[in-house]
Amino acid sequence: MKHESIETNAGLLIVLTLIVISIGGLVEIVPLYFIDSTIEEVKVDNKETIRPYSALELRGRDIYQREGCYTCHSQMIRPFRDEALRYGHYSLAAESKFDHPFQWGSKRTGPDLARVGKKYSNEWHVQHLIAPRSVVKESIMPNYPWLMEPLKYKDIADRMRALKMVGVPYSETTAEYEANVKRFGEEIAKKLNILHAEKNLIAQAKTGNYDGNADDITEMDAMVAYLQMLGTMVDFSKFDEGHFADFR
Amino acid sequence: MSSEKTKPTVQTTGHAWDGDIQEFNNPLPTWWLWTFYATVVFAIIYWVLFPAWPVGKDYTKGVMNEITYTTSEGKTKTTHWNTRSLLLKEMQLARESQAKYLKDINASTFEQIAADEEKSAFAYSAAKVLFADNCAACHQAGGDGVIGYYPNLLDDAWLWGGSFSNIQETIVKGRMGAMPGFKSRLTEKQISDVSVYVLSLSGDVTDASAAKRGKAVFNNDGGCTACHGADAKGIITMGSANLTDKIWTIADVTGADTFDAKKAAVSDLIKNGKSREMPGWKDRLTAAEIKMLTFYVHQLAGGK
Fold it and tell me: What is the pLDDT of residues A113-139, one digit of tens each?
């Protein structure tokens, strides 16, 4: 076919352009689904330590997305020395395998949050989310005072079911629960049980007391629970330093 | 419109738009074409040297491009080129270039670090970066803290002690500071009296009789001495504040203009209490890093 006949036929030109452009994406992405080492195996005592979010953390993740936190904060520490020194161990593919959608991002107006969990106290997070400049004078982050409003959680089971449909191992049947016990251990399997989602959510908010007030359950409880969990599921001291490099 | 002026002198596509707009049909410039061929050759060389093509469940790893690194645990490994191993190699080189200094830091006492110019310069500049990354979010970039939330590290007052070993322990283990609220245990009047007494300890003497009543509550009903000590100077093992100096870390007394405002700030704290948490850093920072930070924080407060 002469290029003249392609250039003078708009429909054909569009179709062929789309095919050529998509090759660039397809050859980079599709093989990753088939290569064994794409997602690292992270097991301690034969149990997976990277788990789906608990009910409360999941609500926090939803609020994180609702407020558009991802537009300024990435959750992806790249394997560079400067990032390792500032943020900690590079992110593993496995650490976001239960994220739908993933929160990697590529724009850092604020710092990366992939390992922000346990770095600051709950009180700091609450104060910082309500009024960032009261703790970091030079911050340009907006205020989020409305996070102190009550959390709506009646639909938590449906939210978990929706994620289950795309492959997140929340359990509803006894068989699914047993499979989770085998995979993650009993303690985690309980957190992933959709049938007890609301009960678990309330219990975690009360005992965790993330917003400094144990009597109510606010969006702040969910948000801080989510932030304090980020990047904490892998205990890197349990693995050799070169262990995760072997997957590449 | 004259047709002579648009007469083609080179080959065109033979189509005219809008009456007289024509398109040349020239071949690609030679320099462009050869640059394109060069990129193709570059890609082929790259495929050979670096991980590139998926093959079944694996992929080509590249040849003649190996990385040999030693982990901090001392294991040496040679592997095909990949960014994670490259990072480990970079970390190894950095570790080796800093090893001499870190060894010195680990082997020295705080006093020796302070006395040696080279050691203290290394510790100070390393810790300054660590402080900005890890501590400044709460204690502020300059270490001046936020009243009501995070203690000022520049002054002479230390809730948990200001010696090297105290500061080191605080960073390693973290601290939980808890001032309980007394609104259910004391009456409004008692709280008011205690507030007057507490303010009088640092020189704000107004109502002597109220202060005297407050003192009685402080020592008896309130049980304040259990944490703040009989002399109200605080007990560093409990992290309780010294109430006799003019330094206030939670109640914003220095920011209040009138005595009533000062009293309100103190009463408020006595009523509602305040819990504060300093996280522990032993899992995030190495022993040498914590040692240098300890030195830095100690220096911030004047090094005494």
Answer: 999 998 888 989 999 999 999 888 889
Condensed to tens digits (0 to 9), the pLDDT of residues A166-199 reads 999 999 999 999 999 999 999 999 999 999 999 9
Question: What is the ipTM score, two decimals?
Answer: 0.88
Q: Is B172 a residue whose pLDDT tops 70?
A: yes
3-state secondary structure of B22: strand
Alpha-carbon distance values, A220 to A174, A223, B234, B280 (Å): 32, 5, 34, 23
Instruction: Please answer yes or no on whether A135 and B146 come within 8 Å at the CB atom.
Output: yes
**Domain ranges across chain B:** 1-65, 68-100, 129-300
Give CATH superfamily name and number for A43-247. Answer: Cytochrome c-like domain (1.10.760.10)
With an 8 Å Cβ cutoff, are A241 and B71 in contact?
Answer: yes
Smallest Cα distance from A61 to chain B, Å: 23
The answer to whether residue A31 neighbours chain B at the CB level (below 8 Å) is: yes
Cβ-count burial A225-239 (b if 16+ within 10 Å, e if not): bbbbbbbebbeeeee
Q: How confident is the model over A56-101, as pLDDT tens digits? A: 999 999 999 999 999 999 999 999 999 998 899 999 999 999 999 9
- Which CATH homologous superfamily contains domain B129-300? Cytochrome c-like domain (1.10.760.10)
Q: Are B129 and B147 in contact (CB under 8 A)?
A: no
Give the pLDDT mean for B261-273: 92
